[in-house]
Amino acid sequence: MARGAPSPADVQVIRELVTQGVVVTASQLESWRRAGLLPRHRRRGLGRGRGSVVDAVDPVVMESAAALARHLRQGRDRRLAVLEWFAEAGMPVRPGAAKVPEPPVAAVRQALVWVLERSVSQRLVELARGAAGAGERGQDALYAVAGRVLGSYRGAAHPAVVRAALEAGEEVPVEAEGQDFRSVVHLVAAIGLGAEEVGADALAEAFAAFGLFGLTVEDWAQMLGAAERGEGPPVDWGLLQQQADLVGAIQRAGEEKLVRARTVMIGLRGFYGLYVLHGLLMPDTPAQAALRQRIDDLGIFPLLDHVTPISPSPRQLAELLAVCLEPLYDNLYEALMEQLTEDSAIFRLPGDETGVVGFGEAWLQAVRELPTSRRAVDGDDGPGGRSA
Hints:
Blueprint: H1 8-19, H2 26-34, E1 44-45, E2 52-53, H3 59-71, H4 78-88, H5 105-117, H6 120-131, H7 135-151, H8 159-168, H9 185-193, H10 195-198, H11 200-209, H12 217-228, H13 238-244, H14 246-252, H15 255-278, H16 286-298, H17 301-307, H18 314-323, H19 327-342, H20 356-368, H21 374-378
Antiparallel strand pairs: 1-2
């Protein structure tokens, strides 16, 4: 074989990937190996002094190269591709295909840390910690920056409200949207300044913004105030510091824990998606209703809404994965999986023997029968809008 020419095994990999619609070059394969992302082909020794030979292409090499090629493109950082690869590992990318192998854990951890260190969340945490010794000017700067970042986000309208509006041909009322996140700035401040400096009333506003367990500002203020006065169970504010350290959590997590966090992340995203799709007229079934009821009983829909994008970018994926290392999310996932095990007929309408096909047809029919909104009938596109 000529110097610099691809090995016969690499030629076979390249040819096989072409049949899958994936184009790679020999130089790319070698570059990925040098970066520690792609294993070398397994070789068999021929005996003393006779060298070694590759008997067959290793499927792990083939599928790893395919994963990298799917997610890498000109000018894109490899670490983002590694995160997307990690997100799909353990599952086939198409029916009948081999499962996607796990990327090297060292590369995954490096990519996660790289993204998290540059995230808005990490910058806010660093700003909060820097404000601790910067006096009033530093505190004012922290509140100004965090307020701008957090104030731009509002929770989504509850799916039940969205569904009712669609079925009635109405617009979703503006007041149905979740409250804005501006008050969460108090939690950010507590990371740097300390909970005592921020105060129980401000922190009550921050916790209430998450909508957890249906607790109001008054509920949180009562509990935190009692703890502050020594009249109730103490609050371990060290947990707030620990949970803010997403980079440290990733660095401490072993491979098994990272894989488990991915399982929790994907599972919660699926449960959240089902809840949201109920608002978009997806046919209801007893299994779906039971899952929604379990989520409502736990009071966690607002939490899922805040942390679970349906189709996360690699950067969102890194933050969500770090969050899912926490026992709270693992326990929520287990509770919902328990409910799913009790009744798994998510996409089967009672009395309909056609199964998923009938479910899909019912969904399409519901969309076709959707009444025209009154705004469209009246020719009013809202303030500043244009009528047809």
